[in-house]
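Predict the 3D structure for this chain.
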Amino acid sequence: MIKIKKTMKHGKLLLVLLTNIGLFYSCVPTKELKQENNKLPNHFAQQSTDTTNSAIIKWKDFFKDDNLIKLIDTALVNNQELNIMMQQINVAQNEVKARKGEYLPFITYGVGAEIEKVGEYTRNGAVEKNLEVKEGKEFPEPLTDYSAGLFATWELDVWKKLRNSKKAAALEYLSTIEGKNFMVTRLISEIADSYYELLALDNQLAFIEQNLELQGNALKMVRLQKEAARATELAVKRFEAEVSKNQSHKFEVQQEIIEMENKLNFLIGRQPQPIARSSGGFIDTPMDTIYAGIPSQLLLNRPDIRQAEYELEAAKFNIKVARANFYPSIGLKAGVGLQAFNPKYLTETPESLIYSAVGDIVGPLINRNAIKAGYNTANAKQIQAVYEYEKAILSGYIEVVNQLSKMDNLKKSYELKENQVKALTASIDLSTRLFQSARIEYIEVLLTQREALESKMELVETKKDQLMARVNVYQALGGGWN
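Done. Predicted structure below.
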């Protein structure tokens, strides 16, 4: 009969416990996750559905200029911004280790020594005095206490709060890795763009110097004709002004070259110094074909999209963590050791042996506003992460479309400018001969030389834009980090 009563008592306790847990479940708020939209068109505009993609090409194979490759190699080691990002990766990696340790038992050790003198008219003092009277033995005064032991605490991860927290940290770590990869692609693109701009400035400077030589010869010719009364002082002054203008422009370009060299020096993390480069043949640099693949490959190849995806997944786990805070936490505490008022008794067991084991369940009951606010914040961050992910996809797709269109239009523009340069270059010599034979005015020679120089400068700019667009398409497709 006694056993039946005890069984019924335990059953009631179990029923109460299960009822309370059920109440906890019913009181926990639940919100639906916002689902992301990662749909993309089947192919880029005016592009085939061929999956061949230039993004998988390693950057050392994509670039053919050895000087540019050396600059990028140096930057990937010395660039300060990239090194700062590497430390952020280390921080995220340590955060994963820290959260992993939270759902494992914590075991500590302790050694202590204590001395205590209590008042005779206190409860402890009265107990000690009474013991002396009854036993006839003097109680040690002051009383010492020595102890040594091992202690363990462990929160049972019943609701997977700690495991989900660790998974969120792991995804955030992967997100920082992708952030670093995206920074690498941008760094490589910026170095390549700056390098091509430097080559373009070198070529523009060379064209200015060539034009100055032509204008110098034309100025001598005009002065001779003035002396022979075949030209006026106005013609001489106009040619002198044009020469001064181009000499001034030459110094402007030289300053731009210095600034561009120092920009590259900053990107590769070194003091200002000349940049090794080969500017000859810049105009004839071949434009290799870029294969765009299909839009859905952006989800795999672009680091910024993958970074946003990892952050979105981490946000989902953080919602689970925030929701688990509504549930009671279950903890275990245990300890074992030795304790005695005299060190010589510490090793005497079982008299000096001490141990304890405690289990507790603690959960929020009243005033859960802070937990509700944390849960609502986690949901808001998940919605924010969805928009960030969708924005990254849309931005990446538009970047590719724009750069592909730019490459196509620049190719057509370059062909027309090339024809223009050839025609104007041939007209320089023709206009000079006609002027010498007094068949045209000096102003036509002047305008022909000016237009020829401008067309050459524009041709260099267009070639530079072509090379930069090729690099930007490579980056937009997700190339450069591997």
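Residues 1-8 have pLDDT under 50 and may be disordered.
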